Amino acid sequence: MTQKDVYKVVLDEEQIPRYWYNIVADLPSPPAPPLNPATSEPLQPADLSALFPDGLIAQEASTERFLEIPDAVRDIYKLWRPSPLYRACRLEKTLGTKARIYYKYEGASPVGSHKTNSAVPQAYFNKIAGRTRLTTETGAGQWGAALAFATQIFGLDCDIWQVASSFNGKPYRHAQMEVFGARAVASPSDKTAIGRQLRERFPDTPGSLGMAISEAVEAAASDPNASYSLGSVLNHVLLHQTVIGEEALLQLDVFGEEQPDYLFACAGGGSNLAGISFPFIRENLAGNKHVKIIACEPKAAPSLTEGEFRYDFGDTAGMTPKLKMYTLGHDFVPAAVHAGGLRYHGMAPLVSHVYSEGLIEAISIKQREAFAAGVLFSNAEGIIPASESNHAIAGALRTIKAATEAGEAPVVVIGISGSGQLDLPAYTDYLSGNMLDS
To answer: If residue 297 lies in a helix (H) or strand (E), which one and from where to where?
Structure first.
């Protein structure tokens, strides 16, 4: 069988990674530590004990290169992992390009996104620590649905604050959470003190991830049996997602691709980008590969391309540790674009660090361009991508178009973070011409 005849590579279940990769061990310089919000001193593990179980705190602070994935987590991963790597043959034909295009598709997970890669281990470590309830925030709803799925597996209660614009615009997302037994409310809500304050201060706000984080943190901090779970940004979340990139490296070898030229991934808080790219950065640092990695963020929340690299709070109310990251300011409220998972004021500290070190690049994309790319991809490949993933596709199409015009044939890998089946109102908005060019 020739390379052109192969449309997808799906690894055996035994090839599901046995270890998460921790990029901290290989960085040329150490990342700045998080700071205690009260003292501005470097955060200590004990400072996190009210919100996280010891197992996750240890991962957050770890400098080990590889951390073993518990068998109980790998067993659940088998429901959707390994995820497929596709050769986008029909897209190549549609574009009339000699570029070889591949995409790693995370939409086959139980809730249709990459978020389950971290939701399952977070629920597991909380369960063995004796916690009985998890609280969280969610933007577009992928993370909320993933945590709802994971908590019902381990018999935990789950309360979710979903950004109001997404809660109202994507009703099937919170319905999905409720099917798994979670309780979901629009944020800012009247369920927390900070939510009530934000509603009074911003009566017509579409909400933001920063606001929803504040509510979820408050709820967890006031309940000794609860933990807070975060779907992006923190080190342990990015760690869990590296199963994506580890699989992609093996799958590209099966395709006979030793050296991809470009890797594109959408970037909001950073978990999807880190998950697929960090193993490739490891190979770049070791001199084994020379892949140009490009983060594709929304123009409505361009933390990498327009933000400042400094300490800032991860939430609106200033309840979280201070993180050294590219930020637009913790009180920044993005426009209500459809890619709700990318509407965050800051970028994960580890992603921010590798960007500051020049190990990745970044571009920003308006949502009309993103959805145009998503529709073209859908018609060629038969998969409707998540709104967030459309930004990665759009970024890749820019490069492929320029390369084709120059007579070049690069090898391009695109991270497709999830399915867009529950984002169809957004596609309808684009197709009807009602989408704002934010």
So the answer is: strand 292-298
Residue 108: CB atoms within 10 A of its CB come to: 17
Q: CB count, 10 Å around CB of 47?
A: 18
Q: How far apart are CA 121 and CA 200, in angstroms?
A: 37
Helix axis angle for 243-255 and 271-285, nearest 10°, is 60
C-alpha 369/C-alpha 389 separation (Å) is 12
Please state the domain extents for the chain: 3-16+71-112+236-431
The count of other CB atoms within 10 Å of the CB of residue 18 is: 13
- State which amino acid sits at residue 152: Q
* pLDDT bracket for residue 3 (50, 70, 90): low
Phi, psi of 329 (to 5 degrees): 105, 135
Contact of 138 with 144, CB cutoff 8 Å: yes
Strand partners, 292: 262
The answer to whether 368 and 394 have CB atoms below 8 angstroms apart is no
CA angle 317, 321, 323 (to 5 degrees): 105
Helix (H, G, I), strand (E, B) or coil at 73: helix
**Between the CA of residue 134 and those of 25, 48, 61, 130, 235, what are the distances in Å?**
30, 15, 21, 11, 19
Is the Cβ–Cβ distance between 164 and 259 less than 8 Å? no
Residue-level pLDDT at 335: 83
SS3 286: coil
292-298/262-266 β-pairing: parallel
SS3 content of the chain, % helix, strand, coil (to 5): 45, 20, 40
CA distance 119 to 134: 11
Nearest by Cα to 340 from 243, 413, 409, 422:
422
Domain 3-16+71-112+236-431 adopts which CATH fold? Answer: Rossmann fold (3.40.50)
Looking at the DSSP assignment, which residues form a beta bridge with residue 136? 160
Would you say 131 and 156 are in contact if contact means Cβ atoms under 8 Å apart?
A: yes
Closest CA to 107 of 137, 144, 146: 146
Least confident of 172-181, 183-192, 310-319, 355-364: 310-319
Of the candidates 161, 164, 162, 158, the one whose C-alpha atom is nearest the C-alpha of residue 123 is 158
Residues 6+ apart with CB under 8 A from 180: 145, 148, 149, 151, 152, 158
Looking at every residue in the chain, the average pLDDT score rounds to: 94
In this structure, the strands spanning 308-313 and 322-327 are: antiparallel
At 4 the pLDDT is 57
Q: Which residue has 């908590």 as its token pair?
A: 151
Written as six digits, the tokens of 40 are 């501005």
pTM, whole model, 2 decimals? 0.95
